[in-house]
Amino acid sequence: MTTNAAPPRALIVGAGPAGALMAILLGRRGYRVDAYERRADPRQLPDADVERRSINLGLSHRGITALTRAGVIDDVMRTAVRAKGRVIHASDGRLSFQPYGSNEREILYSISRIALNRELIRHADRMENVRFHFGMRCDEVDRDAATAVFRGDDGRTERVQGDFVVGADGAYSTVRQWMHRNERADFHQEYLDWGYKELLIPAAPGGSSRIELEALHIWPRGDALIVSHPNPDGSHTATVFLPWEGPRSFATLQTETQVMRFFAEAFPDVPGLVPELAREFLGHPTGSLVATRTAPWHHRDRCVLVGDGCHAVYPFYGQGMNAGLEDCLVLDDQLGRHPADRQAAFAAYQNARKANTDALLELVKDNFDELRDTANQPTFVARKKLDLLLHRLFPERWIPLYTMVVHTTMPYAEALRRHRRQERLLRRLGVDAVLALALPALVAARRLAFRPVRGVPSAKARPPLTHA
Amino acid sequence: MTTNAAPPRALIVGAGPAGALMAILLGRRGYRVDAYERRADPRQLPDADVERRSINLGLSHRGITALTRAGVIDDVMRTAVRAKGRVIHASDGRLSFQPYGSNEREILYSISRIALNRELIRHADRMENVRFHFGMRCDEVDRDAATAVFRGDDGRTERVQGDFVVGADGAYSTVRQWMHRNERADFHQEYLDWGYKELLIPAAPGGSSRIELEALHIWPRGDALIVSHPNPDGSHTATVFLPWEGPRSFATLQTETQVMRFFAEAFPDVPGLVPELAREFLGHPTGSLVATRTAPWHHRDRCVLVGDGCHAVYPFYGQGMNAGLEDCLVLDDQLGRHPADRQAAFAAYQNARKANTDALLELVKDNFDELRDTANQPTFVARKKLDLLLHRLFPERWIPLYTMVVHTTMPYAEALRRHRRQERLLRRLGVDAVLALALPALVAARRLAFRPVRGVPSAKARPPLTHA
Questions:
Q1: A19 with A169: CB under 8 angstroms?
Q2: Is the ipTM of this complex over 0.85?
Q3: Is residue B206 a part of any domain in this protein?
Q4: Would you call A187 and B187 a contact, using CB atoms and an 8 Å cutoff?
Q5: Residue A290: its chain B contacts at CB < 8 A?
């Protein structure tokens, strides 16, 4: 932009992680930024509430890259818990550990969404050209004029004029709806026939964790699934995923007796971890799981979408927020490459990004089957070991899918393509057929075994793969 | 239903072909039927308008089966024109004829949407328990109460109480929107990056047709496509399909010079068929093409969707309306099978039908490529001949895809499965490789040649295949 003209004014709708990160990045570019959020200011919540009330997220390489660029990673990491792998809880109570990668840097960080959001808002709010407006719901967007109407908690409305509007307002994005109104817009929305409910596994007296702290815990049962994330206070937030209808489902778990019988059968170690399990289960709301895809992501140089606003996914790969943060980097890069043509920047952003977030939805759906079905099956475990072994033998040419998705910034679509090529190669070699038989011995011989709980692989540290 | 209770009252929203057919079928079952339509009564349009203003449809076996069941087929056929095959207009002006099937019954009927609609409404309106309300737009549906609010052309609104609501209100269905509001509903909408525009090829003086009357005409050009349907007065309604953007697109055809140069290049015989081509092209509106998929199709025993309301497709297989009429039959059958449990009937209807209309969308997308790209390529023509030859040799075991879709009532999903099996078999036999070389001679020897224009295959008549 020229030095004489006033810098463009960006209206960001939604100040969750993606919206707040966008505020930082646009603020740095010199834009005047006003970010509107319908919820209250998360900085005003008491700390205790932050941990209890917030959903937990797995922050991984893509999100870390984005937060590093924004200069907030150190503050964010202070509230994060390292998760070096998954602890699988089998039906018979046995535990096993699967590391998330082949070296110490290939790990996840469990973080509360609110804690992350607070750090991003704190950093953005320090910039003179960035202002936040909380308790302001977006009622309407004029996509050509780049004006938006916001309604405060007191019912009063305000029409605001921007140069462009950023829709960071989630899966049910108001910006998207106004942007696509009467347009030839593609839109796809599907709900999983499973819902979810959160339970708290509190810390033991004295603040120690009742289960391995530095790990995600998974209870895969095919027709039921629990995933838990650790909190810094030693507690874990467990999410129970179940079908809405059917023999074992939320529909059939209506009384305390039904709930306790179900857990005793399906998750025998959980009643010992969650006090007042039945009351908590019946008292907590059941959430639904939506996935969306859409196009276009922008309207001229006037409106653009980021994060869940243009591609919501199910939570089974821990990539929803990471992908949203990555969107912001790609959009920021394109604004830098097209300083005089914002429409070209928006178009290049969609062009660079949409195929990847479409691929992510495929990856997430596949990973749901893996998480609930196969994570504890011997062939799956052997296959994972083979993948890591091949990765160690040919570190650049063979990369396990999980590694590409979670521990690199390789575009999701490229990760999916490479994975499919690797799968075809294995099939052609007939590996699947002999896997369960021959491999465990081979792996054991090479000492690439999965450790028991509390063990962490001690591979040489290697910088994470990055692909612009 | 019992004889003592008043029969249930059905509110049908939308009185197009599917809504009007539903009125007949529900009326026959003894329901009290009120059908609301936002447009004016099509029976009041002057006949001349009906032919000029209406889009034309290809009525084929599924639609014929439905209209036969409803007892309206004879009246409908009086306004239809037989189309025994397609006339392909090549770029160099050469014409070739491809029959639609292997016998005289495997043909299409070109019919005006309004003419069809009028016949259906006339028949339905003769029933004492069926009433139509025109110029009434549906503003709101209460999915649990089965009430709907209709607004007349004078602005006055009326809330109507039914026992259930049938959404026959098209791709942008209001019933669907109210039924799915805040529900976990899947919804998919995509727009083709091509639009369409209609042109009239008038009859020659004296009322004869300027091109073969009893055929659809196709101008396949890869990046442009024209399809025309014959009208009873000797005219043809031609639909020009083009990309919205790009070198040859609606965006680049803005002046009379551009339009005339485009047609001279791409469709050299069309300027001679359409008087004032450029003025007509620039004056007529450009329509967009939407496809939708959704679930669920019903809410309890209170709301149910039919036709485009639950599955709009692009017009490239001529099946949109046929599938909508078929929906009505399936729903009517299920109401007959579950006389005391309407919710079970609705659920069985969705269950029987959705996989098939999902398959239809796949079929239509594939057929778009065929229509615009390959319909005039030698390998495609040879392949079509092989298909018909194999069908003649093994009439029950080998059925060309087009035949299954258009000339039978075999469920669409089954047609797609059988087609894929047939394709795999051919590939395994290596047929594709030798097709272009060996087959034409073989076909010629068997006299299964495609005739020049005006020829119609004189195969023995065989009743159409039907599969419940």
A1: yes
A2: no
A3: no
A4: yes
A5: 184
For A346, the enclosing helix (H) or strand (E) is helix A342-369
Here the tokens at position B332 are: 């009517």
Q: Pick the last residue of a domain from A320, A335, A368.
A: A368
> Domain of A164?
9-89+110-189+290-368
Consecutive H or E run containing A407: helix A401-407
Q: How many whole angstroms separate alpha carbon B21 and alpha carbon A21?
A: 55
Tell me the backbone φ, ψ of residue B286, rounded to 5 degrees. -100, 125
In a shared domain, residues B396 and B363:
no
Mutate which: B172, B180, B184, B354, vs A, most A CBs within 10 A: B184
What's the structural domain count of chain B?
2
3-state secondary structure at position B159:
strand
Alpha-carbon distance B154 to nearest alpha carbon in chain A (angstroms) = 25
- Domain membership of residue A116 (yes or no) is yes
Q: Which residue, of A368, A391, A409, is where some domain finishes?
A: A368
CA A422, CA A438: separation in Å to the nearest integer? Answer: 19
Place of tokens 């290596």: B430
8 Å CB contact between B403 and B61: no
Instruction: Classify strands A303-305 and A298-299 as parallel, antiparallel or unpaired.
Output: antiparallel
Give the CB-side neighbour count of residue A372, counting CA atoms within 13 A.
19
Model confidence pLDDT, tens digit, residues A277-291: 999 999 999 999 999
What pLDDT, in 10s, does the model give residues B55-106?
789 999 999 999 999 999 999 999 999 999 999 999 888 999 988 887 888 9
* pLDDT at res. B465: 44
Mark whether B37 and B180 lie in a shared domain. yes
CA A56 vs. chain centroid, Å, equals 9
| B190 → closest Cβ in A186, A191, A290 | A186
CA distance B194 to chain A (A): 11
Predicted confidence (pLDDT) per residue in B410-422, tens digit: 999 999 999 999 9
C-alpha closest to that of A436 among A384, A388, A389, A401: A384
pLDDT over 50 (residue B448): no
| C-alpha–C-alpha distance, residues A41 and A404, integer Å | 35
CATH for B294: 3.50.50.60
Contact flag A188-B185 (C-beta cutoff 8 Å):
no
Q: How far apart are CA A10 and CA A161, in angstroms?
A: 9
Residue reference for tokens 């019919």: B111
What are the start-end ranges of the H helices in A267-319? Answer: 277-283
Contact A188 B189 (CB under 8 A): yes
Domain identity same for B74 and B115? yes
A441 and A298 together in one domain: no
How are strands ordered across the β-sheet holding A157-161? A136-142, A147-152, A157-161
From residue B319, alpha-carbon distances to B53, B316, B367 in Å are 21, 8, 11
Taking a C-beta distance cutoff of 8 angstroms, is the pair A431, A439 a contact?
A: no
Cβ-Cβ contacts under 8 Å between A and B: the total is 30
Does A15 map to a domain? yes
Specify burial of residue B394 (Cβ count, 10 A radius: 0-12, 13-18, 19+): exposed
Which structure tokens are listed for B137? 């737009």
User: Do A356 and A387 belong to one domain?
Assistant: no
Statement to judge: residues A347 and A445 lie in one domain = no
CA distance A187 to chain B (A): 5
Phi, psi (degrees; rounded to nearest 5) at A430: 70, 25
What count of other Cβ atoms lies within 10 Å of the Cβ of residue B44?
Answer: 9
First to last CA, chain B: 25
Whole-prediction pTM: 0.82
Residue A188 in tokens: 């796809």
B433 belongs to a structural domain: yes
* A424 shares a domain with A360: no
| Chain B residues near residue A190 by CB distance under 8 angstroms | 186-188
Tell me the shortest Cα–Cα distance from A174 to chain B, in angstroms.
15
**Whether residues A114 and A182 fall in one domain:** yes
